[in-house]
Amino acid sequence: MDNNDMNNMNTNTNGTNEVPPQQNQNFSQQPNMNNVPPQGNPFSQQPFMQPPVMNQPPMPSQPSKGMSIAALVLGILSLVLFWVPYANYVILVLSILGVVFGAKGMKDNATGSGHGLAIAGLVLSIIGLCFCFVGVLCSICACASFCGAANSLNSLYY
User: Does 36 reside within a domain?
Assistant: First the structure.
């Protein structure tokens, strides 16, 4: 065979010198074009599922951050609203509740993500409690001085 015969053998019908792809006679290794799973024993491809064991202990639950968030909200409210004169009595109760919720939140979330919230709520509630206590004392003193002034004005007329 000479070079001319070799060129004729490698030439396709469209005149290019590309070699046609080899046809694989083994049908099991042809690519799957229809996205159909290969037929065969389905149990050999998937692992055998074990039945659940009934005597396992329950999963430990994550501690909730509800008390910590409540302490933080009450601490913020007590700091924001302590300067309102007659709301001090309500804010005093809310800040006491914030201290209680903060302590309970610290106990429940000893190392969790709610521990920082509980500390922040406890600190804000204690600061708000101090400010509210001072506000309550000031409002009591203001009422007492008002009553004393009214009594002295009353004695002028009688």
Answer: no
Q: How far apart are CA 89 and CA 78, in angstroms?
A: 11
Quote the pTM value.
Answer: 0.56
In the structure encoding, which two tokens stand for residue 89, read together?
Answer: 């009595």
pLDDT digits (tens, 9 = 90+) for 140-158: 898 889 888 888 877 777 7
Are 76 and 117 in contact by the 8 Å Cβ rule? The answer is no
Which residues 6+ apart lie within 8 Å of 62 measured at CB?
112
Residue 57 lies in a domain: no
Tell me, what DSSP letter sits at residue 46? Answer: S
